[in-house]
Design brief:
Elements lengths: L4 E5 L39 E10 L8 E10 L10 E6 L10 H6 L2 H12 L3 E6 L3 E3 L2 E3 L22 H20 L24 E7 L3 H12 L6 H4 L7 H6 E2 L3 E2 L2 H5 L2 E7 L13 H14 L4 E5 L2 H4 L5 H20 L5 E5 L9 H11 L8
Parallel strand pairs: 4-5, 4-8, 8-11, 11-12
Antiparallel strand pairs: 1-12, 1-13, 2-3, 3-5, 6-7, 9-10
Helix pairs in contact: 4-8, 8-10
Length: 381
């Protein structure tokens, strides 16, 4: 059974060029709530260090649980100040799969490894965040703070934008992580002005984009964020989606310009959605709400913005005869995007590719190898 991949690329304007790859200079020693520093080679285009570690943060005040485990790989200046990235890649993990004996699966069971992998794929000017669910029922990830309708196994009954729970949770998690990292690297945590961060000398201080990725059950968070983007009030969108230098108002809108600090700031900064082998044991793996997709396209047309939807898949999910709804939902979402492409007179470009392979392997290993081997750039699989 061959590996399959389908990409839907929705584009309103030309994307920036690919970023330089991160040198292979990370150590493999374990770290928990601590820092590791990577030093690019002298020939590198960006003279930066990195902070890489794992944090535990909660949504509630006074460090009250439940806690989210977040792995992060963040840009640092040589003075150990956080640097504004070109993009924040936020990856939502799925159910726990450990103790398999497969080295590929074991490697991707460590969220810190995923963070480093994302940086290697997206370029050395990216920040990467890998979020695990706060609650696990056995192996099942339960993103109850992001999707209030989920059952005890983390399966959603519906995707409801009311209250914007996913975007508000992401904003809180990132904000608390930034403060924690600043504290750990002995930077000020009280000043909330752009002097606490450095901009790369070769770049202008523009607001970073956001890439959202959901692996397996993490795809449910992607669906929820897509729904919230569709139903967000578009009044502030023109300022939030501008590519100009942040004004004083927008500086207040950002956590030191490193990441968004409001639901609108997050949602309108998203440039890419990635479904990475999404799947559930019930309906809801892919969004099939035509109204939501249409509303997003209207936002893009109104504000001359760009966004992409990328569907990555393997036979583990797309060819499972015992869960036929996964492939059906994927096809529905693909058709919805293709329909909107026609409605937008070619400004939305659907691309579908199939990759054949004779390899037969453990189903989770298929997903893990796909994540390791396939690039995430918008130009190709």
């Amino acid at each position: 059974m061959g590996n399959m991949a389908c990409r839907i690329f929705c584009k309103m304007r030309k994307n920036p060029g690919s970023l330089p790859a991160l040198p292979s200079c990370f150590s493999n020693s374990p770290a928990f709530i601590t820092a590791r520093y990577a030093h690019p080679s002298p020939s590198g285009l960006l003279s930066m260090d990195r902070w890489t570690g794992v944090l535990k943060v909660s949504l509630g005040p006074n460090h009250r649980g439940p806690f989210f485990k977040v792995a992060a790989s963040l840009l640092l200046s040589h003075s150990k100040a956080l640097i504004v990235p070109s993009v924040n890649a936020i990856f939502f993990n799925g159910d726990r799969v450990e103790g398999t004996g497969d080295p590929v699966i074991e490697r991707l069971s460590d969220s810190r490894n995923i963070a480093e992998l994302l940086v290697s794929k997206l370029g050395s000017s990216a920040n990467a965040w890998v979020v695990d669910a706060s609650t696990f029922n056995g192996p099942f990830a339960v993103y109850k703070e992001f999707i209030p309708s989920v059952n005890s196994r983390g399966e959603p009954k519906r995707y409801d934008p009311n209250g914007f729970p996913a975007s508000s949770s992401v904003v809180t998690i990132l904000s608390k992580c930034v403060e924690e990292v600043k504290s750990l690297i002995s930077c000020s945590v009280t000043k909330q002005i752009p002097t606490d961060v450095h901009f790369p000398a070769s770049t202008s201080p523009t607001r970073p984009k956001t890439i959202i990725l959901g692996f397996s059950k993490g795809g449910t968070v992607v669906n929820q964020l897509v729904t919230e983007l569709a139903y967000l009030n578009t009044e502030p969108a023109r300022d939030l989606m501008s590519s100009e230098k942040p004004s004083s108002r927008l500086s207040q809108e950002m956590q030191d310009c490193l990441c968004p600090v409001s639901e609108g700031g997050l949602l309108f900064s998203i440039s890419e959605f990635h479904y990475v082998d999404a799947g559930l044991n019930c309906a809801g793996a892919y969004l099939t709400d035509r109204t939501a997709i249409r509303k997003i396209v209207e936002h893009l047309l109104l504000y001359d913005a760009s966004i992409s939807f990328t569907l990555h898949g393997t036979p583990r999910q797309w060819c499972d005869r015992h869960r036929p709804w996964i492939c059906k939902e994927k096809d529905i979402l693909r058709r919805l995007l293709e329909d909107e492409a026609r409605r937008c007179e070619g400004k939305l470009k659907p691309i579908s590719k199939k990759r054949n392979s004779s390899r037969r392997s453990n189903c989770f290993a298929q997903s893990a190898r796909y994540l390791l081997q396939r690039p995430l750039e918008s130009s190709s699989f």
